Amino acid sequence: QVQLVESGGGSVQAGGSLRLSCVASGYVASRYCMVWFRQAPGKEREGVAFINNYGFTTYADFVKGRFTISRDNAKNTLYLQMNSLIPEDTATYSCAIRSGDGCNNGFHSAMNYWGKGTLVTISS
Q1: Is 20 in contact with 115 (CB distance < 8 Å)?
Q2: 76 — alpha (psi -120 to 50), left (phi > 0) or beta?
Q3: What is the pLDDT of residues 101-112, one digit of tens each?
């Protein structure tokens, strides 16, 4: 079992920045991948950023150059640094993990565990 708890959401004006955190507890396999997802009201959930245990990262086109995913293994924490925020970034952001093999599909890898999410609101 892995528990994921997100924090760092809030309300900022367009052009501002936020850093989201996701603390993982429990057993995580040596091979894993983690994804930040977001879901805006009335829209489908979409993958934002992906990282695996090798440190390989990939981003959705709509956040490239603005968002950075990173991890601190010593703190069991995943981060999402979000800069140059726009109103369209408003959503609930959730982290998810696939602990074990099966991360070959990037955002579309089947995640084992999910956090409850943190709300990000960007005003114009």
Answers
A1: no
A2: left
A3: 889 888 888 999
Average pLDDT (83-97) is: 98
Distance of CA 93 to the CA centre of its chain: 7
95/77 Cα distance (integer angstroms): 11
Amino acid present at 97: I
Task: Give the pLDDT of residue 30.
Answer: 87
| Backbone phi, psi, residue 41, to 5° | -55, 130
Per-residue tokens: 84: 């140059």
Q: How far apart are the first and last CA of the chain?
A: 40
Rounded to whole angstroms, the Cα distance separating 67 from 50 reads: 11
Q: Are 119 and 11 in contact (CB under 8 A)?
A: no
> Could you read off the pLDDT of 30-75 as tens digits, one per residue?
889 999 999 999 999 999 999 999 999 999 999 999 999 999 989 9
In 3D space, the residue among 23, 14, 11, 103 whose CA is nearest the CA of residue 56 turns out to be 103
